[in-house]
Amino acid sequence: MTLRLTTPGPGAPDTASDAPSTTLTRAFLACGVVAGPLFVLVALLQVLFRDGFDLSRHPLSLLSLGEWGWIQISNFVVGGLLAIGFAIGLRRVLRPGRRATWAPLLVGGYGLGLIAGGCSSPTQLSASRRGHRMASPTTSAGTAWCMPSPHRWRRWR
After folding, report:
1. Is 133 within 8 Å of 52 (Cβ atoms)?
2. DSSP for 74-132?
3. Rounded to whole angstroms, how far apart are CA atoms 117 and 100?
4. Mean local confidence (pLDDT), 98-104
5. How many Å separate Cα 66 from the centre of its chain?
6. Which of 80, 82, 94, 96 has the fewest CB atoms within 10 Å, i.e. is most exposed?
7. Residue 30: phi, psi to the nearest 5?
8. Residue 45: which domain range?
9. CA-CA distances (angstroms) from residue 99 to 24, 31, 67, 96, 106?
10. Does 11 map to a domain?
11. Residues 148, 2: Cα–Cα separation, whole Å
12. Residue 58 forms part of a structural domain
């Protein structure tokens, strides 16, 4: 068996210095592969095991209420962090241009929105008006004016 040694040309990248950068970029891109399925899997498991939750009537954010609400809050925050990691990976991979600017910004904005959704829980009033059993009917009067009343929901449907 013969081993040939070749020297890289003048424009060839240095593979020794690119190895950590390539590994880190792949890890950031893997965040995007994991983010969506992980978020959906955790949310669906909660839907199956939470009493009184009906996916056809309740938004997923109502899972952040109650004793086990920390699971959905963590789901939002972890999904957002993974999306931001994916945005960093996109920025590293895409060639300079419009795509390299807007794609990471939009994906990163989505990630920030998920984190904001995890940091703010839905109001108790919105949950109780939709008939969700996990919420208590007490709420502050300040949020009552912004919530639609039940008779308006019937007209919109």
Report:
1. yes
2. HHHHHHHHHHHHHHHHHHHHSPTTHHHHHHHHHHHHHHHHHHHHHHSPPPHHHHHHTT-
3. 26
4. 84
5. 21
6. 96
7. -65, -25
8. 24-137+146-156
9. 21, 19, 43, 8, 10
10. no
11. 78
12. yes
Name the token pair of 41.
């899997």
Q: Rounded mean pLDDT of 125-134?
A: 50
pLDDT of residue 144: 42
Residue with token string 């949950």 = 127
Q: What digits encode the pLDDT tens for the residues 25-67?
A: 899 999 999 999 999 999 999 999 888 888 888 888 888 888 8
> How many residues make up the chain in this entry?
157
The whole model's pTM is what? Answer: 0.66
Whether 133 is covered by a domain: the verdict is yes
Give the number of domains in the chain.
Answer: 1
Count of Cβ atoms closer than 10 Å to residue 102 Cβ? 11
CA 17 to chain centre: 32
Give the pLDDT of residue 113. 93
Inside any domain, residue 50: yes
Stretch among 84-88, 95-99, 142-146, 153-157 having the lowest mean pLDDT? 142-146
- The answer to whether the beta carbons of residues 49 and 67 sit under 8 Å apart is no
